[in-house]
């Protein structure tokens, strides 16, 4: 192979100096591969000159799976063996299918835990394997046009992708035999392409609306540094939702019932999509909907009519923009340019509303389909070491807060959303009971206050903690997020040095709907959450105080006089009663009361415990 | 490049250990460090070097986040002086301050009843930010004249402002969502 390789002008003849590196946009609808050749980043077409590869895999009767345009031809003919939009399932568990399955009508293998499997005539496949096939096809395309083996790739993911979804994407690359230099957030990739192309400096917004996802990122560009200030989005919002809204309108106009068959629904969605795309070019479009084999309804839809249907959806994207601006601490007028990415930003109404919101016409002179892959290729070229001395630096953020479950099912955030990565943060926790030897840790991602409203990423236990009185152990939990946005967790008991750690590798991730609801809910439930949170906090605190007191009384009540004991018992009863009520302030008061009543007792116990612990040691060992 | 984790954040960025920071100098120093330390600079290196890069870059990010934010910087300066502020256990006890805080909270709760809630919220938010700036100024005076106890009293007020600002953000999001329908 190497002997046949002919070096192009400007390319190093020494293969050790130029590593073949690509950027890959692994999209829900379409995927692309790009590379830097002769200093220019460009997407690579197939032998027929097509750059976009539909993210579709067909499993035929015989022979290897087909990918892309050829596979898409089978969508209607052989639907159960033609898989599209699997990106929606990446990093998801079987339990998540309920919420996403509506969009992907496949034959899922029944089962409970773990990764969902889809039945095809070539056997059961997982979403990771299907994505792996798409990556293999992109790799083959790249190797054919570059004439050599790929050294590595940068693969893009939506900025809102959680840990599980990122991990699943890396797994797919491993299946395709690809060395991943880096996972890169899609809007950040777009910003690189824009920044290097336009040479602009300042704060920009990247608005990425694809088929099923929406991302907004605010970045500051300065001398080759791309600093993400905030990112946000809506993971269940895209062109597909426009299609659904239009299809609904068509059914209403044509008098079709809501529970029409599955096949008819698919046809309607395809018609709606065609109409939507036509209206990007024209003022109105004609429609023909089959009512039965012989009967048709025909009508017409104008841009204005469509705009009314999609305006509520556009409103949602603007709400996310507002939130991202606030998190970034910038105002719309501080934004130098708004870069439009993704096929759905071709809709004129989207451009118009985004323009109004930011107070300036958005940038549409960059190819919205290719910009992500091009940015990824530029980054891959640098990571491959092909541009020594290049000063480009990407500083990205985590999209959703990372936290830990605390008593009472509450979440304590350890790393808030929009923190620059890589990042490492630690928090100390203590034991709840005397002699507690283990501590269960539950790793959470999301914005809501109660654990159940967020995504559970992993659980693990720190065991082997030596026996101590409640509150004496100091468990330090450290969260480390790397540059890919992947989390690892370490827990260590500081007094004894007992240690336990995990790479967070969950078997599933957040569903689109879950993230969506998590984000909207955290807005609309703020007040409710706050009251619930205060009450839960106080209840937990009450339980802790009661438990600590009971165990202390059990062990050391001889340290108290009868009167003292009675005072403490009375205060205890008051707290126990308040604990059962709904008033967080009353509980707080009762806790204060009990603490006051038992102050002396606690002090005497501490003295005793310290004296015991130190017997046999010299004092300076404790200093 | 070897990072000395024992140096404090001001030393790390080569800045004077004081409340006032030169934002441009801070950013320049931060970028210079990240340019050398960021894991992307070690894409072709072994696992060990990459792990070290993640640690180093995390440390620098944390340092930058601490010095960039006024409140975090104030807390950090005190901790460098060995002054312990346990905000979980201790609270500000200036009665006038607590009274003001209660009034601000009540005003926030009443924003919904205003004729133009968003405008009312904006006005309130400006008021809160002004008080925050005053508190920081008081901190700076106390700290720079080495009156650490007075500085500590100001830092104990930070938590109240953190809460107020969170509340303002929550309410604005809710109001904006309502407007969007
Ligand atoms: N000319 C157009 N007008 C309106 N929508 C379009 C147009 N071209 C593509 N789209 C829509 O863009 C979406 C696909 O965008 P793309 O960025 O390729 O998605 P993804 O990133 O999810 O793979 C689809 O919903 C498609 O209908
Ligand atoms: Mg895309």
UniProtKB/TrEMBL annotation, chain A:
<dbReference type="InterPro" id="IPR043129">
    <property type="entry name" value="ATPase_NBD"/>
</dbReference>
<dbReference type="InterPro" id="IPR042039">
    <property type="entry name" value="HscA_NBD"/>
</dbReference>
<dbReference type="Pfam" id="PF00012">
    <property type="entry name" value="HSP70"/>
</dbReference>
<dbReference type="InterPro" id="IPR029047">
    <property type="entry name" value="HSP70_peptide-bd_sf"/>
</dbReference>
<protein>
    <recommendedName>
        <fullName>Chaperone protein HscA homolog</fullName>
    </recommendedName>
</protein>
<dbReference type="GO" id="GO:0051082">
    <property type="term" value="F:unfolded protein binding"/>
</dbReference>
<dbReference type="GO" id="GO:0140662">
    <property type="term" value="F:ATP-dependent protein folding chaperone"/>
</dbReference>
<dbReference type="InterPro" id="IPR029048">
    <property type="entry name" value="HSP70_C_sf"/>
</dbReference>
<dbReference type="GO" id="GO:0016226">
    <property type="term" value="P:iron-sulfur cluster assembly"/>
</dbReference>
<keyword id="KW-0067">ATP-binding</keyword>
<comment type="similarity">
    <text>Belongs to the heat shock protein 70 family.</text>
</comment>
<dbReference type="GO" id="GO:0016887">
    <property type="term" value="F:ATP hydrolysis activity"/>
</dbReference>
<dbReference type="InterPro" id="IPR018181">
    <property type="entry name" value="Heat_shock_70_CS"/>
</dbReference>
<keyword id="KW-0547">Nucleotide-binding</keyword>
<comment type="function">
    <text>Chaperone involved in the maturation of iron-sulfur cluster-containing proteins. Has a low intrinsic ATPase activity which is markedly stimulated by HscB.</text>
</comment>
<dbReference type="InterPro" id="IPR010236">
    <property type="entry name" value="ISC_FeS_clus_asmbl_HscA"/>
</dbReference>
<dbReference type="InterPro" id="IPR013126">
    <property type="entry name" value="Hsp_70_fam"/>
</dbReference>
<keyword id="KW-0143">Chaperone</keyword>
<dbReference type="GO" id="GO:0005524">
    <property type="term" value="F:ATP binding"/>
</dbReference>
TrEMBL record, chain B:
<comment type="similarity">
    <text>Belongs to the HscB family.</text>
</comment>
<dbReference type="GO" id="GO:0051087">
    <property type="term" value="F:protein-folding chaperone binding"/>
</dbReference>
<dbReference type="GO" id="GO:0006457">
    <property type="term" value="P:protein folding"/>
</dbReference>
<dbReference type="InterPro" id="IPR036386">
    <property type="entry name" value="HscB_C_sf"/>
</dbReference>
<feature type="domain" description="J">
    <location>
        <begin position="8"/>
        <end position="80"/>
    </location>
</feature>
<dbReference type="GO" id="GO:0001671">
    <property type="term" value="F:ATPase activator activity"/>
</dbReference>
<dbReference type="Pfam" id="PF00226">
    <property type="entry name" value="DnaJ"/>
</dbReference>
<comment type="subunit">
    <text>Interacts with HscA and stimulates its ATPase activity.</text>
</comment>
<dbReference type="GO" id="GO:0044571">
    <property type="term" value="P:[2Fe-2S] cluster assembly"/>
</dbReference>
<protein>
    <recommendedName>
        <fullName>Co-chaperone protein HscB homolog</fullName>
    </recommendedName>
</protein>
<dbReference type="GO" id="GO:1990230">
    <property type="term" value="C:iron-sulfur cluster transfer complex"/>
</dbReference>
<dbReference type="InterPro" id="IPR004640">
    <property type="entry name" value="HscB"/>
</dbReference>
<dbReference type="InterPro" id="IPR001623">
    <property type="entry name" value="DnaJ_domain"/>
</dbReference>
<dbReference type="InterPro" id="IPR009073">
    <property type="entry name" value="HscB_oligo_C"/>
</dbReference>
<dbReference type="InterPro" id="IPR036869">
    <property type="entry name" value="J_dom_sf"/>
</dbReference>
<dbReference type="Pfam" id="PF07743">
    <property type="entry name" value="HSCB_C"/>
</dbReference>
<dbReference type="GO" id="GO:0051259">
    <property type="term" value="P:protein complex oligomerization"/>
</dbReference>
<keyword id="KW-0143">Chaperone</keyword>
<comment type="function">
    <text>Co-chaperone involved in the maturation of iron-sulfur cluster-containing proteins. Seems to help targeting proteins to be folded toward HscA.</text>
</comment>
